[in-house]
Specification:
By secondary structure, this protein is an alpha/beta fold. The chain has two domains: about 20-240, Hypothetical protein af1432 (Orthogonal Bundle); about 265-365, no CATH class. It has 14 helices and eight strands. The strands form two sheets. Strands 3, 4, 5, 6, 7 and 8 form a six-stranded mixed beta sheet that branches. It has a two-stranded antiparallel ribbon with strand order 1-2. It is elongated and about 70 Å long.
Length: about 375
């Protein structure tokens, strides 16, 4: 992907947003693209931003993402940007079968039916609003109908989602879209779904780097990685794009895998020590000391070996069972420690997980006779 300096001002486009969200939208949604190659995209956004934003609002409030608390709109815009980037990288003979305006509007609205359905609005009500807006954009009825059809196909089937496991539900939904029988629609759907998946891979990787994987996701990172990897394999195989386009996202996917591997090592060590306890949920404290992470029961304040330097970062994590059979263990960052240098958002914790080995994880053993025995030094305080 290009890393050229943008030559298009985004200030006007996002003038209605507060400064925090302006910077977030500008830095994430349009990263790595050559703005001169997407003038048609910005013409569309300039005319439709207010309406698009309204579709991802509830009772006048912007819908937020689950983990990073950024606007949901940032994912939608990034999906449209990546769809435009994929279009620009298509062979010329494939470009002729894609109507650019249809592609971008369907990308911008690809999640709107699900978002509004989850909050009580019917598909018919939402679709009617989209049709009225698109008519005002001077689009023909055939193009409008195609956009609405694409948006409906891109919306997950609610009954399918409720009946299956996370991984199986995601697989079925992806293949339903990817294998659409209508050849014309399939061309659009593969571009938009690819952009959607790539945007999610990118955002998850960046969230982990910034320490924002903070326990608000219901699905374990390892399961999400498996879904990403499977979908990415289809995208690489079926989209006729140059390898250079995929290299950036391959690196992003590899970063998520590294975090998964670190979490696996940490989970293994914790369960090896605490696994004899039939617990549903366990809170633990950690301190980062150079390249090691020291874990102990959250019942105590600090261990003497965990306080050699007030420059060490610390925080609290939660280990709990999940899955329909409660057979998966998940580790989530909860909060920074108040007893030592706070690890805000778990940034240092997740940074260490990128490369941590089992030898670099120290678990302070609990004592069945006393939760505090061997865990805290004399004179220290308790929470």
């Amino acid at each position: 992907m290009s890393t050229e300096t943008p030559n298009f001002s985004l200030d006007c486009l996002f003038r209605e947003f507060d400064l925090k969200h302006q910077e977030d939208l500008k830095s994430f949604c349009f990263f790595g693209i050559d703005f001169s190659e997407h003038s048609q995209l910005f013409n569309i956004l300039g005319k439709s931003m207010t309406f698009v934003r309204s579709q991802y609002q509830l009772k006048g409030q912007d819908v937020l993402r689950k983990v990073n608390e950024g606007l949901y709109l940032r994912h939608v815009l990034r999906t449209a940007v990546l769809a435009s980037e994929i279009f620009n990288n298509l062979p010329d003979d494939l470009k002729t079968s894609i109507d650019y305006d249809v592609l971008i509007f369907a990308s911008l609205f690809h999640d709107v039916l699900e978002v509004r359905r989850n909050n009580g609005q019917t598909e018919e009500e939402t679709s009617e609003g989209l049709v009225n807006f698109l008519r005002n954009q001077s689009l023909s009825e055939d193009r409008i109908n195609l956009i609405i059809d694409l948006v409906k196909i891109l919306t997950p089937l609610k009954e399918e989602k409720e009946k299956t496991s996370y991984s199986e539900g995601k697989r079925r939904d992806f293949l339903r879209i990817w294998s659409e029988e209508d050849e014309i629609k399939r061309g659009y759907l593969r571009i938009i779904k690819s952009a959607d998946v790539l945007a999610n891979i990118e955002e998850t990787s960046i969230d982990l780097e910034l320490g924002k994987e903070n326990g608000q996701m219901k699905t374990p990172l390892a399961l999400r990685y498996q879904v990403f990897a499977e979908r990415f394999s289809y995208i690489e195989k079926d989209l006729e794009l140059k390898i250079e386009f995929f290299n950036y996202f391959t690196r992003r996917l590899s970063k998520i895998f590294n975090f998964c591997y670190g979490l696996h090592n940490l989970t293994y060590c914790i369960l090896e020590e605490f696994g004899g306890y039939n617990f549903e949920e366990l809170e633990l404290k950690y301190v980062i000391e150079e390249d090691k992470i020291i874990i102990g029961s959250s019942s105590f304040f600090v261990h003497k070996n965990m306080t050699q330097s007030q420059e060490n970062y610390g925080g609290v994590i939660k280990v709990y069972k999940t899955g329909k059979e409660k057979n998966l263990f998940v580790i989530d960052f909860i909060k920074p420690s108040l007893s030592i240098k706070p690890d805000d958002n778990g940034k240092e914790f997740f940074a260490l997980l990128r490369s941590i080995t089992k030898d670099e994880i120290v678990i302070l053993s609990p004592n069945l006779n006393s939760l505090f025995a061997g865990l805290c030094s004399q004179g220290e305080y308790f929470d």
